Structure formats: structure tokens, C-alpha cells
Amino acid sequence: MRILLVDDEPELVTTLAERLALRGIEADWAQDGDEAIRKAGVAEYDVAVIDLKMPGMGGLDLMPRLAAIRPSMKYVVLTGHGSEEDRRTCCEAGACFYLIKPLDIDALIARLKEAAG
To answer: Given its phi and psi angles, is residue 68 left (phi above 0), alpha (psi -120 to 50 degrees) or beta?
Structure first.
């Protein structure tokens, strides 16, 4: 399974990538939507884990742009400020899961495996 992590918090994405690698999951990371689009253009990912609120291009804007490049990619949306309305909007936009920070790594891995099918 190959994962693309997208979050504007560099410590979060680098730490998540390291923790996933220790569990045998290959993860690349990007700090903004433009970088994520570039990476998806050159590499295949099973799942993108995307922060809902980022400067410039947030998760809801990024998902359809990634889907145009990688139609089979699945999405898990992260947020630090969750609401039922945001969860519903993200799921309607194509997210398989909506998770609230701070993340439990085992819960994230379970959702990644489920999303990747």
C-alpha cells in the first residue's frame, strides 16, 4: 500500500510518514495541494490522507483535482476542528473516512487498509 500524506504541518506529515514506514506502509508527503498534485502526477497512490483546512487549497478543493489524475485513489480527510457538517460534506465529496486530530496511528492504519480495500 502506498500513501500520500498532505498537511501543512511539516512535523505531522514527516512523523506520520516515519511511523507508517515502521509498520511497512510506504508514505510520501506534501505540505500543500500543489505539491500533492505534482506527486500524484508521477507516482501511484492507493490512499491520500488530506488535511481539510490548509492555506491555499484545502482538502475539499484538492480531492477532485487528485481524482482527475488518479481516479482510483481513495481519500481519508483529517481535521483538527471536526464537525458533523464537515464530516458529511467530506463524505459526500468522496472521502472514505473523516478523522479528527490528534490521530491514533493504529486507527489510521485500520482506516487506510479499509479504504485501500
So the answer is: alpha
The answer to whether the beta carbons of residues 3 and 27 sit under 8 Å apart is: yes
In the chain, domain spans:
2-82+96-102
Contact 95, 77 (CB under 8 A): yes
Torsional sign, CA 89, 91, 92, 93: positive
Alpha-carbon dihedral angle through residues 90, 62, 110, 41, given to the nearest 10 degrees: 150
pTM, two decimals, is 0.95
Predicted confidence (pLDDT) per residue in 8-20, tens digit = 999 999 999 999 9
- State the number of CA atoms in the 13 A half-sphere of 9 facing the CB: 16
Spatial distance between the Cα atoms of 90 and 86, rounded to a whole number of angstroms: 6
Phi, psi of 99 (to 5 degrees): -120, 150
Q: How many CB atoms lie within 10 A of CB 91?
A: 14
Domain 2-82+96-102, architecture per CATH = 3-Layer(aba) Sandwich (3.40)
